[in-house]
Amino acid sequence: MRRITDEQRAQFREQGYVVVPGVLTDAQLAAARRTVAAMLEEEPPTDVGFHFLWPRFNGGHELLDLYREVGLGELAGQLIRPDLSIEEPDFAQVATTIPPWPHRPGGPHVDGLTPLAADGVPGTFTMLAGLWLTDHEQLDRGNLYVWPGTHLGLGAYLAEHGADALTDLDAMNPGPYPKIDLGSPLQVSGPAGGVLFAHYLLGHNIGGHSGTADDDRRETIYYRLHANGHRGRWREVVTSPLLEFRS
Ligand SMILES: O=C(O)CCC(=O)C(=O)O
Ligand SMILES: [Fe+2]
């Protein structure tokens, strides 16, 4: 079982994200790539650019088996308070980017708002976990853009305006993300087999892929993770962004 270091926990708290390298073994990586290839055969991309699949687990799925084998819940659990645990997810996102797709995001977004659920409750969660099935060592290979520290800025904005301001899509247009001081974005990078953990409130967006048609597509498997009890305290969590996290 990999351990998250104090430095990695501090980076997550301050910057809103951390990359933990070497989480998948070569065998797990190869098996996950075969699973994704089979899923993409069923629903192939029709063009360059991003292509997402949203498999639901319904109690059993190869991507749920992968989550369990990798110990992703336990690993993410080392970022949150010891009295909390990570609930098993019931769906994943297979995120691929087919080159060549020159693209730079104009700004960040926050997940779970477009569309809003019928009850108007935003689809908040504790953190995003992204398993990198392809190399992210070079930039512009489909690497995610993040705006470091914006989890704290968005939390402060919501503390001032009230948690329900998260659903004010006019004020959050175009992201959805409010007009707070964003600083400069960066592309997250590292070798295949690593995991990116990102705070729910962290501003982020999909990046371009400047490879040629002969280059590998980018492949990431995202799981949206909730600490137990998250849905009952989402208003507190989004106005106090480190509430669920371990120091
Ligand atoms: O393409 C990615 O890596 C991220 C996509 C994303 O942010 C989303 O689907 O919410
Ligand atoms: Fe997103």
Automatic annotation (TrEMBL):
Entry-linked Gene3D superfamilies: q2cbj1_9rhob like domain
- Enumerate the UniProt keywords alphabetically: Dioxygenase, Oxidoreductase
List the molecular function annotations (GO) for this entry.
Answer: 2-oxoglutarate-dependent dioxygenase activity
Q: Which InterPro entries match?
A: Phytyl_CoA_dOase-like
Q: Protein name, please?
A: Phytanoyl-CoA dioxygenase PhyH
- Species whose genome carries this gene: Kribbella steppae
